[in-house]
């Protein structure tokens, strides 16, 4: 069955520390992978996406993610977290050349940042 | 920067009442979507709309739900007779080409009491 798991429900990091949010997926076809962020009171904003090419993808706000096919993972990283990064983060997967009605979202990881 | 806007941001309704959630997609986009997120759960696809008709819908999107693009700018989700379990955050999204990226609104939190 197709699924996306985000093992960490909630993560707390200190401002300036590095961050890694985990995402694992189960998908039968070549996946199209996304990370979205939802700040309080805001909609879902696309941070980055991957469907082919370099497995290390750069996104907005200083985020990057690495696709590891052998591990079925697409972890999100940031070298130095800012207080404004506190938000909910969603990993999502869809079929290659996806239509958004086929995209499956993970349960989300809530990030808190302490000064 | 163009954005998807949703109104209202929060709606409280009594069980059995009809609600209409409104969305203004980005103006040159052609594909429109509704998703919902029950508190503490995943974001789930409800329905997609293209060329003035539903192109896909999920099992959640039963006869109580309908969508409409009544004019050139609005995209609405109607729930005919709300149930307690319809309480959720509802997201509208639009996409220019249906594949590369969808832009999401800020959501409408629906509370059914």
Describe the structure.
The complex is a heterodimer of chains A (115) and B (113). With 115 residues, chain A is an all-beta fold. Chain A has a single domain, classed as Sandwich (Immunoglobulin-like), CATH 2.60.40.10. Chain A contains no helices and twelve strands. Chain A has strands at 3-5, 10-14, 19-21, 24-26, 31-38, 44-50, 56-58, 64-68, 73-78, 87-95, 104-105, 109-114. In chain A, the strands form three sheets. In chain A, strands 2, 5, 6, 10, 11 and 12 form a six-stranded mixed beta sheet that branches. The mean pLDDT of chain A is 90. Chain B is mainly β. Chain B has a single domain, classed as Sandwich (Immunoglobulin-like). Helices cover 0% and strands 50% of the residues of chain B. Chain B contains no helices and eleven strands. Chain B has strands at residues 5-7, 10-13, 19-24, 31-37, 43-50, 53-57, 65-68, 75-79, 88-95, 103-104, 108-112. In chain B, strands 2, 4, 5, 6, 9, 10 and 11 form a seven-stranded mixed beta sheet that branches. Chain B has a four-stranded antiparallel beta sheet with strand order 1-3-8-7, with no helix packed on it. In chain B, a hairpin with a 6-residue loop joins strand 7 (65-68) and strand 8. The radius of gyration of chain B is 13 Å and the shape is globular. The interface between A and B is medium-sized, with 22 and 29 residues.
Features:
heterodimer, A: 115 residues, mainly beta, Immunoglobulin-like, 6-stranded mixed sheet, 52% strand, B: 113 residues, 7-stranded mixed sheet, 4-stranded antiparallel sheet, 0% helix, globular
């Amino acid at each position: 069955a197709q699924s996306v798991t985000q093992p960490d429900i909630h993560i707390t990091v200190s401002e300036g520390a590095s961050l890694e949010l985990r995402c694992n997926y189960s998908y039968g076809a070549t996946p199209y992978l996304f990370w979205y962020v939802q700040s309080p009171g805001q909609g879902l904003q696309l941070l980055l996406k991957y469907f082919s090419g370099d497995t290390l993808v750069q996104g907005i706000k200083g985020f990057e993610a690495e696709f590891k096919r052998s591990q079925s993972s697409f972890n999100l990283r940031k070298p130095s977290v800012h207080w404004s990064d506190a938000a909910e983060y969603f990993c999502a997967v869809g079929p290659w050349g996806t239509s958004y009605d086929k995209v499956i979202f993970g349960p989300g990881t809530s990030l808190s940042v302490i000064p | 920067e163009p954005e998807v806007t949703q109104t209202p941001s929060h709606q409280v309704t009594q069980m059995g009442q009809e609600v209409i959630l409104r969305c203004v997609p980005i103006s040159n986009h052609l594909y429109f979507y509704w998703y919902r997120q029950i508190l503490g759960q995943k974001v789930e696809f409800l329905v997609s709309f293209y060329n003035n008709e539903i192109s896909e819908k999920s099992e959640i999107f039963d006869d109580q739900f309908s969508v409409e693009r009544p004019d050139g700018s609005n995209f609405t989700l109607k729930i005919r007779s709300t149930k307690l379990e319809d309480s959720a955050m509802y997201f509208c999204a639009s996409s220019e080409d249906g594949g590369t990226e969808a832009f999401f609104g800020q959501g409408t939190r629906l509370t059914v009491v």
